[in-house]
C-alpha cells in the first residue's frame, strides 16, 4: 500500500472521533437563523398539510417531521458540503460522501425520496421532494466550489453568501465572450511558462504551471473591483507564479522581464543599489476595464514567503488614510499565498488578526491561496494539523471558498464573489484554489524523490487550457482553430518581445514619483551632510504647552496623571526641567502644525511602557479617551493628524505594517515602539529584509522610526539590551540611521529632522528607561526654539579647562551621566566625557575637530554598558582609530572599557549588575587597575 493510502487509512491528526454527529446534536438542530425556527417550520408544515383538507393527524405530524429533517439535511450541506466538493484536479484527495450528507442519515428511506415536503422558499422551492433538492444541494455545495461560511456569526454576511451560492438556478454563468476571455488568459499563462522554460533552460522561475487559472481570476478582481469603486489594488505574493502575474496581470513589459532573465539591471545604471533576483521584484501599473482605471502595485518580496503580508496591509492603510477613505472601499489589498506557508507561517495569523482592529484594518483583504498540495518537498499531512491550509482564517470568521483550479470559470467566479463580499462588508475573505505544481519547487528540482505518486498523476494530467478548451468546444463557444490562433498570436508576441529584450534599457526608476514627488536621495555625502534647522517658534512652543497641559471641562483624569500634567505645566512655563515625554509631545505636535502627520504604534504606546508618555488621557468615570494632540486639525478626514495606536501583541506583523505605511506616505512620521527594545527580535525578518536592505534591493525609501527602550539598570537579560550591535552590523552605504540620544531636546530635534529633510532614511533610536526621569536628562525652552538642530555629538556637562583634557571617554546613552557623576565625585579634572548621539552615520568629522583641539590627549576610551561582543565597540573601533590618526594622534589606539564578552546580554542579579557597572565606570575613568582584558566584575 502506498504511503498516501496509509495516511488516509489511519486518518488525519485533526479527525474528530465523534463525527458525524447525531441528528439530535446541537450542530444539526441549530438551524441557520436566516430561516424559521424548528417550531415555525413544524407549524408551517402542519398548516400546509391541513390546507389540503385531506390530512389526518398522522399526516400532519409526518409533514412537520419531514420539513424539520429536510431543513437539517439542507443545513448539513451548508456546514459540511465542502467536504464532498470536487476540489482536487489530480483526484488524489478524493473524499467519499460523508454519511450525514445522505438522506438516509436524516431518516429518509428510498420510499420517502419522492414525497413532497414543505420548504417555504428555501433553495427556491415552496414544496419539493428529497430527490429534487438533493442534486441542487450537491450542485450548490459539492461541485468545483466548496464554501465554508456557517462559522460566521453575522446573519447578513451568511445570507449574502447563501443567496449567491444556493438555489435551483444558482449556476456559474459567464457570457460567450467572458468564457473566451478566460480561456485566452489561461493560454497566456501557460504559454508564458512554456516560453520561459524553452528560452532559459534550467533557470529558476518558480512557475505557475498547474495554477494558471489564477491569471483570469486575478483579472476578474481588477475588473469587478473597478466596477465597485476600487481605484487602487496593492498585491503581495511569494515566488510561485510571480513572473506570470507580473507579466499577464500587472502588465510589466515582457521585454523588461526578458532583460532581467539575461542578467540585465532592473533600474538605470546610475541609480545604484544591489538589485534583486527577478522573482522578488515588484512593479506598478494602471489597468482599465470598462472605463474604470485601477492602479496596481505589486510589493517587492524577500524569500521569507509571507513577510510581505503586513507590508501590503500597512501600505493599503496609508493609501486609504491619504484618500480620507474610512472604510477602505477604494483601496484593496490582495495577498497571494502558498498553501504550506499560509498554514505554517505565524505572520499569517498576525495579519489576519489586524482585520478587525481600528488602527490596522484595511476594509478587508482578499487572500488567494495557490494550493499546490505540497510545500517544497513536504506533503500536507506533515505540514499542518488541519484539513485545509485556510482553516486558520476561521479564527476571524472569514468565509472560505475552496475551488478546483482546473475549472477557471469557478476560480473566476470565486474572485467575483470575493470582491462583492469584501466591498459589501469590508471583511477578509479567502479563496483556496486547489491546483498542483507541474514541476518541482524550482525548475531544477526533482519532485519524484519525495512525491512519486503525485508526480505520476501530474505527468498524465492535461494542462488547464486543454481541459477548459474541450469544454468550451463542447459548448460551441470556441473551436480548435480559435485556440490555435490565440496561442500563435501570443507566442509570436513573446518572440518579438524577447528580441526587444536584448536591447532593452530601463530609462527611469519609479521610487520618487506620485506621493514621493519632491523627495529624493540625499544631495550630499554623509560626511558633508549638515543638519537642518528643526527648532520651533516661541509662539508654537506656547501654543503646544497650553494644549498639552489643559484638561477639558468634564474630563476626570487619574489623580496621578493630574499631578504629571501639573508638573509638565510648571516646567513648560518656567522653561526648565523639560523631560523626555514632554519633548516628544512637542515634537509630535509641532510636526502636525507643520503639515506632517504622526503615527505612533506599539504595545502600550498610548500610556507608554514606563507610564511616561500619557498621549492618551482616559476619563476615570466614563472610560472615554481624550488625546490632546488630536485636537490639532481635529475632525478633518484628510490632512495632518496625530495618531497613537496600542497595537496587538505582535512585533513581526506590526513592524511590517508600519514599514508598509512608511513607504506609502512619506509625509507621515511613522514610529513603532518596542515595549522593550529586545522585543524587536520577533520582527528581525522585517528589519533585515525590508528596513535595512529595501532601498538597496528594491529602491524603496522609508522614513520609519523605531523606538527601542535600552539601558542596563539591573532588569536582567531580557529587558536591558535592545541589541544595538545588530543594527550597527546592518549599517552600510547610508542605509539607516542609528542613534542613542541623551537629552530630551536632542530627541525632539532628531524626530523633527526625520520629516524636515528632503530625503527619507529609517531611524533606529535606543530610547531610555531611567533617563525618562533622570534629574540631569532635562532640557530648557531655549533648546527647542531659535536656531536649534539635532546634535550628533554632545559635550560634557562639566568639561576640563580648555586644552587640559588628557583622557577622552566616548560613550552613548545613560552611562554618560554615570560617568560624569563619578568623574566629578572623584575630582578628576583631566577627563572629558563626550556623548556620541548618532552612531551611524558616524560623526567622524566633528569628532576629529574636537580631538585635534586636545594637544595633551594621551588616552581615548570607548565606554559602554553592553558586553564587549554587543553594543557599539566592534563597530566604532576602526573609525575611532582613523579619527585619532586624522586628528594628529596617530600613535594612539582606542581602548575598550565595559563588560566582558558574554552569551547573555545582562545579569539578572542586582548585586552583580551593580558591581559590573561600578567596575566599568572606574575602568573607563582610569580609577582602577588596568589589565589587558576587559573588566569582568564577577561576583562570586
UniProtKB/TrEMBL annotation:
GO biological process, one term: tricarboxylic acid cycle
SMART domains: Transket_pyr
Keywords: Glycolysis, Oxidoreductase, Thiamine pyrophosphate
Domain of life according to the entry: Bacteria
Annotated GO MF terms: oxoglutarate dehydrogenase (succinyl-transferring) activity; thiamine pyrophosphate binding
First-tier enzyme category under EC: oxidoreductase
E.C. no: 1.2.4.2
Regions that span the bilayer: none
Cellular-component GO terms for this entry: cytosol; oxoglutarate dehydrogenase complex
InterPro entries the UniProt entry points to: 2oxoglutarate_DH_E1 (IPR011603), DH_E1 (IPR001017), KGD_C_sf (IPR042179), ODO-1/KGD_C (IPR031717), THDP-binding (IPR029061), Transketolase-like_Pyr-bd (IPR005475)
Keyword Oxidoreductase in annotation: yes
Residue stretches making up the Transketolase-like pyrimidine-binding domain: 578-774
Cofactor(s) in the UniProt record: thiamine diphosphate
Function: E1 component of the 2-oxoglutarate dehydrogenase (OGDH) complex which catalyzes the decarboxylation of 2-oxoglutarate, the first step in the conversion of 2-oxoglutarate to succinyl-CoA and CO(2).
Quaternary structure note: Homodimer. Part of the 2-oxoglutarate dehydrogenase (OGDH) complex composed of E1 (2-oxoglutarate dehydrogenase), E2 (dihydrolipoamide succinyltransferase) and E3 (dihydrolipoamide dehydrogenase); the complex contains multiple copies of the three enzymatic components (E1, E2 and E3).
Record-given protein name: 2-oxoglutarate dehydrogenase E1 component
Amino acid at each position: 500500500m502506498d504511503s498516501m493510502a496509509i495516511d488516509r487509512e489511519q486518518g488525519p491528526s485533526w479527525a474528530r472521533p465523534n463525527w458525524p454527529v447525531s441528528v439530535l446534536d446541537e450542530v444539526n438542530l441549530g438551524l441557520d437563523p436566516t430561516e424559521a425556527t424548528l417550531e415555525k417550520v413544524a407549524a408551517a408544515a402542519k398548516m400546509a398539510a391541513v390546507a389540503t383538507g385531506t390530512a389526518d393527524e398522522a399526516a400532519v405530524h409526518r409533514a412537520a417531521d419531514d420539513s424539520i429533517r429536510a431543513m437539517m439535511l439542507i443545513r448539513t450541506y451548508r456546514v459540511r458540503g465542502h467536504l464532498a466538493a470536487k476540489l482536487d484536479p489530480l483526484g488524489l484527495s478524493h473524499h467519499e460522501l460523508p454519511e450525514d450528507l445522505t438522506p438516509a442519515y436524516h431518516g429518509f428511506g428510498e420510499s420517502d425520496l419522492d414525497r413532497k415536503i414543505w420548504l417555504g422558499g428555501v433553495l427556491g422551492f415552496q414544496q419539493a421532494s428529497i430527490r429534487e433538492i438533493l442534486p441542487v444541494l450537491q450542485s450548490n455545495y459539492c461541485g468545483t466550489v466548496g464554501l465554508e461560511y456557517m462559522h460566521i456569526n453575522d446573519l447578513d454576511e451568511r445570507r449574502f453568501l447563501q443567496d449567491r451560492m444556493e438555489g435551483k438556478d444558482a449556476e456559474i454563468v459567464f457570457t460567450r465572450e467572458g468564457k473566451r476571455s478566460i480561456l485566452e488568459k489561461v493560454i497566456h499563462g501557460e504559454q508564458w511558462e512554456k516560453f520561459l522554460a524553452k528560452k532559459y533552460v534550467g533557470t529558476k522561475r518558480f512557475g505557475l504551471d498547474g495554477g494558471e487559472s489564477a491569471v483570469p481570476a486575478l483579472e476578474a478582481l481588477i475588473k469587478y473591483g473597478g466596477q465597485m469603486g476600487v481605484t487602487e489594488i496593492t498585491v503581495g505574493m511569494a515566488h510561485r507564479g510571480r513572473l506570470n502575474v507580473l507579466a499577464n496581470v500587472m502588465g510589466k513589459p515582457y521585454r523588461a522581464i526578458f532583460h532581467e532573465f539575461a542578467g540585465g539591471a532592473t533600474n538605470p545604471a546610475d541609480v545604484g543599489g544591489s538589485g534583486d533576483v527577478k522573482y522578488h521584484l515588484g512593479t506598478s501599473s494602471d489597468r482599465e476595464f470598462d472605463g474604470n482605471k485601477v492602479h496596481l502595485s505589486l510589493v517587492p518580496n524577500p524569500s521569507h514567503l509571507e513577510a510581505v503580508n503586513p507590508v501590503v496591509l500597512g501600505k493599503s492603510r496609508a493609501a486609504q488614510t491619504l484618500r480620507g477613505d474610512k472604510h477602505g472601499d477604494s483601496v484593496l489589498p490582495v495577498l497571494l499565498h502558498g498553501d504550506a506557508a499560509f498554514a505554517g507561517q505565524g505572520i499569517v495569523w498576525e495579519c489576519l488578526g489586524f482585520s478587525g482592529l481600528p488602527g490596522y484594518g484595511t476594509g478587508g483583504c482578499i487572500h488567494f491561496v495557490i494550493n499546490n498540495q505540497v510545500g517544497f518537498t513536504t506533503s500536507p499531512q506533515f505540514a499542518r494539523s488541519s484539513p485545509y491550509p485556510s482553516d486558520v482564517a476561521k479564527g476571524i470568521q472569514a468565509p472560505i471558498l475552496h475551488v478546483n483550479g482546473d475549472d477557471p470559470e469557478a476560480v473566476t467566479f470565486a474572485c467575483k464573489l470575493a470582491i462583492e463580499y469584501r466591498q459589501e462588508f469590508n471583511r477578509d475573505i479567502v479563496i483556496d484554489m486547489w491546483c498542483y505544481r507541474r514541476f518541482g519547487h524550482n525548475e531544477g528540482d526533482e519532485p519524484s524523490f519525495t512525491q512519486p505518486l503525485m508526480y505520476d498523476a501530474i505527468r498524465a494530467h492535461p494542462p488547464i487550457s486543454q481541459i477548459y478548451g474541450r469544454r468550451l468546444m463542447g459548448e460551441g463557444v470556441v473551436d480548435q482553430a480559435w485556440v490555435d490562433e490565440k496561442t500563435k498570436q501570443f507566442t509570436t508576441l513573446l518572440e518579438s518581445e524577447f528580441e526587444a529584450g536584448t536591447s532593452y534599457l530601463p530609462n527611469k526608476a519609479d521610487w520618487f514619483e506620485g506621493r514621493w514627488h519632491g523627495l529624493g536621495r540625499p544631495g550630499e555625502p554623509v560626511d558633508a551632510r549638515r543638519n537642518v534647522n528643526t527648532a520651533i517658534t516661541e509662539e508654537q512652543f506656547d501654543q503646544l504647552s497650553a494644549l498639552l497641559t489643559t484638561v477639558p471641562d468634564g474630563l476626570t483624569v487619574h489623580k496621578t496623571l493630574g499631578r504629571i500634567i501639573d508638573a509638565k505645566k510648571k516646567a513648560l512655563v518656567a522653561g526648565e526641567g523639560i523631560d523626555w515625554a514632554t519633548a516628544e509631545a512637542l515634537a509630535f505636535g509641532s510636526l502636525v502644525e507643520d503639515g506632517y502627520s504622526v503615527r505612533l504604534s506599539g504595545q502600550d504606546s498610548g500610556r507608554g511602557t514606563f507610564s511616561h508618555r500619557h498621549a492618551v488621557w482616559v476619563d476615570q468615570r466614563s472610560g472615554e479617551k481624550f488625546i490632546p494632540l488630536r485636537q490639532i486639525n481635529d475632525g478633518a478626514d484628510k490632512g495632518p493628524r496625530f495618531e497613537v495606536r496600542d497595537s496587538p501583541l505582535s512585533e513581526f506583523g506590526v513592524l511590517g505594517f508600519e514599514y508598509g505605511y512608511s513607504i506609502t506616505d512619506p509625509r507621515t512620521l511613522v514610529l513603532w515602539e518596542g515595549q522593550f527594545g529586545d522585543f524587536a527580535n520577533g520582527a528581525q525578518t522585517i528589519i533585515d529584509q525590508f528596513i535595512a536592505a529595501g532601498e538597496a534591493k528594491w529602491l524603496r525609501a522609508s522614513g520609519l522610526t523605531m523606538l527601542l527602550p535600552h539601558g542596563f539598570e539591573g532588569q536582567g537579560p531580557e529587558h536591558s539590551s535592545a541589541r544595538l550591535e545588530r543594527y550597527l552590523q546592518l549599517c552600510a552605504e547610508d542605509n539607516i540611521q542609528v542613534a542613542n540620544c541623551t537629552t530630551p531636546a536632542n530627541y525632539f530635534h532628531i524626530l523633527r529632522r526625520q520629516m524636515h529633510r528632503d530625503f527619507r532614511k529609517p531611524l533606529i533610536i535606543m530610547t531610555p528607561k531611567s533617563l525618562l526621569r533622570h534629574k540631569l536628562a532635562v532640557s530648557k525652552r531655549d533648546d527647542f526654539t531659535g536656531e536649534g538642530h539635532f546634535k550628533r555629538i554632545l559635550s560634557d556637562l562639566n568639561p576640563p579647562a580648555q586644552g587640559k583634557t588628557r583622557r577622552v571617554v566616548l560613550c552613548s546613552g545613560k552611562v554618560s551621566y554615570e560617568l560624569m557623576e563619578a568623574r566629578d565625585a572623584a575630582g578628576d579634572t583631566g577627563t572629558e566625557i563626550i556623548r556620541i548621539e548618532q552612531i551611524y552615520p558616524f560623526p567622524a568629522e566633528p569628532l576629529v575637530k574636537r580631538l585635534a583641539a586636545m594637544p595633551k590627549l594621551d588616552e581615548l576610551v570607548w565606554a559602554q554598558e553592553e558586553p564587549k561582543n554587543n553594543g557599539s565597540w566592534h563597530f566604532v573601533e576602526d573609525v575611532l582609530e582613523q579619527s585619532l590618526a586624522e586628528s594628529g594622534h596617530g600613535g594612539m589606539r582606542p581602548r575598550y572599557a565595559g563588560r566582558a564578552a558574554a552569551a547573555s546580554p545582562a545579569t539578572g542579579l542586582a548585586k552583580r549588575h551593580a558591581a559590573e557597572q561600578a567596575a566599568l565606570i572606574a575602568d573607563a575613568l582610569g580609577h582602577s587597575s588596568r589589565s589587558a582584558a576587559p573588566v569582568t566584575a564577577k561576583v562570586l
